[in-house]
Specification:
Helix content: 25-40%
Strand order of the largest sheet: 6-9-2-1-15-19-17
CATH class of the domain at 47-117 and 126-234: Mainly Beta
CATH topology of the domain at 47-117 and 126-234: Immunoglobulin-like
Number of helices: 21
Mean pLDDT: 92
């Protein structure tokens, strides 16, 4: 048979109103290669670069300025010769003329920061106090990197060109495959006030602390020039940093010396190499005790933190950190920090004891003492089940001005307690949920993307989606009665039916509602795969295989899609296409149900049944009204006009009917007679259910079935039922005699995120609602206010007019 060209086949697929939602993704995904094979695993020629850093930095607390020098060793493991290197200068996003600032549309959704309102109709354009504060901070300070020198190790200058948040370093000769080069860079920058500028790092001042001028917490991230990633699928990942799209980085080894005020406690990526120089003997002993403790142990006690807050620092200390095979380095420094730790055992792992640790000021109170390190421990245990043993020696949660941000071995988390007038500190359920949830989420990021190193600048959903899914799993295992949100299919209905929804595959900086698009909707997709489509055992196996394959490597969406399919043994192209590439939503309507019974062909049986069915039909209204009026009936008053038809109706059996029945039986083949006789004997109930797909997203049809005898069943019909017609489909269900359907509900447990549950019921239910009594509110405009009474100081009696 002649095969049509591919282009013609593509036209045929969409001709008319036919749409093949089950066609394969091969036309969209990149071709497999020697670096990324068709199964979704790294290919036999997979490679990635390596970057090692040796950094010495000094924190000037008074000036809130950082000065540093780094020696960078870059190893080219690619097959390409590189004439230049690119570095990320993320602090340059805070320059007044940065692309991020210049393209920050007023009222837009792109920036992490205070919201403003663009006027419309009678509503004025508004600036919040927070936005005014940000504008003033940007005007009053010079932010961004001061690059003092880029040199070879012997001091020779290296030509370099700064392009926004990027810098190109021109090499004297191309770096050949397998070779390494080293260079030095000196820089400094003014640290942003995080509460004013709204960044991923910065300082926070506590003016009410006992010390004159207060105390600060410093959270330092994106604080050093970092090498841009170079990959097999994109080359240099030199996308400008605009704020939304985060980072993609290279793994390497770090040795970092941090010089800070002598009374500061420092938390950082890696392990402290000189505890004898920066910790007291008591603190070192507590740290040793914590490794085998069953509960968190204070390393820096509340009393020690309080003494440091009210004291005066003299001189500096240098904290030395080392971290192997990490993609980034972040740290925090403050004299306000309390510090606790607890060891987590991983028998047989590379790091058999992981120190789960938390650092927080007194403002964190009992909330942090009770829940932060406990949440770290819980996260490690849950996430390791779904991926791999935690790969590093420590996992840290640090309180500061950043609401939630992740880096290798260290996370920044924001919730705190409320100070009451009597000096006590309390917290709401929302703050408790926020702390437990954000710690789980940010510590979870150490697995994804700090270890499974996806490209956050391009695809936020690759790490945020998996992490939101796993943090919800961990959250429900922590306490299923806490109202966790934004992770299940049912949570995503408002977004998925909105006109602002974008495909998940949208580039990070172009996404409007990042929380719904990159966090919630992918998480909901994975819950659907795990609990409804694939099943827990196979999905968990596939996710763990993906994590194992891409541990310390850089996966792409195609690698993820292919691995989940290959490891679970499930063709999911229809799912990826619909859920990740379109803005369709789930809305399956159960439009009608037909019940069928088997005709026996025996006129004595079938015609008697039809007579009963006719008798069960509603009578004629006019006849009923005639009876109520007492009108006479002619044939009853004149019996002489009656005949055969007054005693025999249309359902009377005749010899012709009987002969037709015997002829029908005689004409059946033996197998036909056997099937017919069995069907008549069983007298089963046949139901045809008619569905329409109103939302466009094909999904399994999950049915909750209730029978007249009170019994219930759940039936799941795979999504492939839509493969030939994605708009409407009918399904036959057969039940034995006496098993009659009373009610059918589509998606009875709300597991698919069906947007309209009212068309899921058959028969249709009465839609529940409430009557809410209310009074019209008084007009709030100044014209409508009693300004005369207000000026006179009058307080109106609201009970009287």
């Amino acid at each position: 048979m002649f095969a049509a060209p591919a282009a013609a086949q593509g036209v045929q697929q969409t001709k008319g109103n036919y749409e093949d939602k089950f066609r394969q993704l091969d036309e969209v995904l990149p071709d497999p290669s020697a670096t990324r094979n068709a199964s979704g695993a790294p290919g036999h020629q997979y490679w990635q670069q390596k970057v090692d850093y040796r950094i010495a930095a000094t924190l000037d607390e008074a000036r809130r300025r950082l000065t540093a020098r780094a020696t960078v060793r870059y190893t080219n493991n690619s097959p390409d010769s590189l004439p230049w290197l690119w570095m990320q200068l993320d602090q340059n996003i805070f320059k007044r003329d940065s692309m991020a600032e210049l393209t920050d549309a007023f009222g837009g959704a792109g920036r992490r920061g205070p919201k403003v309102t663009l006027g419309s109709g009678s509503e004025p354009t508004k600036l919040s106090m927070e936005e005014l504060r940000r504008q003033q901070a940007m005007a009053d300070n010079d932010y961004g990197y001061d690059i003092d020198a880029v040199t070879t190790l012997n001091g020779g200058k290296l030509p370099h060109t700064i392009v926004g948040t990027l810098m190109r370093i021109d090499l004297s000769q191309p770096l050949a495959p397998g070779q390494s080069t080293e260079f030095a860079i000196d820089w400094a920058f003014n640290i942003v006030e995080e509460d004013a500028v709204n960044a991923r790092s910065g300082y926070e001042n506590f003016p009410d602390d006992p010390k004159k001028g207060g105390n600060d917490i410093f959270l330092l991230a994106q604080w050093f020039p970092r090498m841009v990633a170079y990959s097999d699928y994109e080359g240099w990942h030199n996308k400008e940093f605009l704020g939304r799209g985060e980072f993609t980085l290279e793994f390497g080894d770090y040795a970092v010396d941090l010089t800070v005020p002598a009374d500061h406690i420092v938390a950082g990526t890696g392990m402290v190499q000189n505890p004898d120089e920066v910790l007291t003997s008591a603190q070192r002993q507590r740290l040793e005790t914590a490794k085998t403790a069953d509960a968190p142990v204070f390393i820096v006690t509340p009393a020690e933190a309080a003494a440091a807050e009210s004291g005066t620092a003299r001189g500096t200390k240098t904290w030395k950190f080392a971290a192997a095979n990490v993609r980034d380095f972040a740290w925090a420094s403050s004299r306000k920090f309390m510090w606790d730790a607890q060891g987590v055992k991983q028998p047989g792992a590379e790091n058999e004891t992981v120190l789960a640790m938390s650092f927080w000021p007194k403002e964190g109170g009992e909330l942090w003492r009770k829940y932060s390190t406990a949440a770290v421990v819980h996260t490690l245990k849950v996430y390791s089940r779904f991926s791999f043993d935690y790969p590093y020696p420590t996992a840290q949660s640090v309180n500061g001005p950043v609401g939630g941000m992740e880096y290798p071995m260290i996370t920044f988390n924001g919730p705190r307690t409320t100070l009451n007038k009597d000096g006590t500190r309390t917290y709401s359920l929302a703050e408790k949920m926020f702390l437990v949830g954000v710690v789980i989420h940010e510590i979870g990021h150490i697995y994804f993307p700090m270890t499974v190193n996806s490209d956050e600048r391009q695809w936020t959903w690759m790490d945020e989606g998996i992490n939101s899914f796993l943090d919800s799993v961990a959250g429900y295992e922590w306490d299923p009665n806490m109202p966790w949100t934004r992770s299940l299919p049912r949570d995503m209905i408002p977004y998925m039916v909105s006109t602002t929804q974008q495909p998940i595959m949208t580039q990070s900086d172009s996404v409007n509602d990042l929380g719904s698009n990159a966090y919630g909707k992918p998480s909901a997709a994975y819950h659907l795969l795990r609990d409804t489509i694939i099943g827990r055992e196979r999905f968990d196996f596939a996710l763990k295989e993906y994590a194992r394959r891409w541990k310390f490597k850089r996966p792409t969406p195609a690698d993820f899609f292919r691995t989940i399919e290959e490891a679970s043994g499930t063709d999911l192209d229809w799912f990826w296409r619909g859920w990740f590439y379109t803005t369709d939503h789930v809305d399956i309507s159960l439009d009608s149900i037909y019940r069928m019974k088997m005709d026996s062909k025996d006129p004595d049986i079938d015609l008697a049944r039809r007579r009963r069915e006719r008798a069960d039909e509603p009578g004629l209204v006019g006849v009923r009204l005639n009876e109520e009026q007492g009108l006479p009936i002619w044939v009853m008053e004149n019996p002489g006009v009656t005949d055969f038809y007054d005693k025999n109706d249309e359902f009377t059996v005749t010899p012709k009917d009987t002969k037709a029945y015997t002829d029908f039986l005689a004409g059946l083949a033996p197998w036909e007679r056997a099937a017919f006789d069995r069907a008549v004997k069983e007298d089963a109930n046949y139901y045809v259910l008619n569905f329409s797909n109103k939302g466009g997203l094909v999904m399994p049809i999950i049915l909750g079935l209730t029978f007249k005898d009170g019994s219930k069943e759940k039936l799941s019909i795979p999504a492939e039922i839509w493969r030939r017609n994605s708009r409407e489909v009918a399904k036959l269900l057969v039940y034995p005699k006496g098993k009659e359907l009373a009610e059918v509900v589509v998606d009875p447990e709300w597991e698919t995120g069906d947007a309209d549950i009212e068309n899921n019921q058959y028969p249709r239910r009465i839609i529940p609602s409430r009557i809410e009594a209310f009074k019209d509110e008084a007009a709030k405009s100044r014209v409508s206010r009693d300004l005369m009474g207000e000026a006179a100081g009058a307080e109106p009696d609201k009970k009287k007019k």
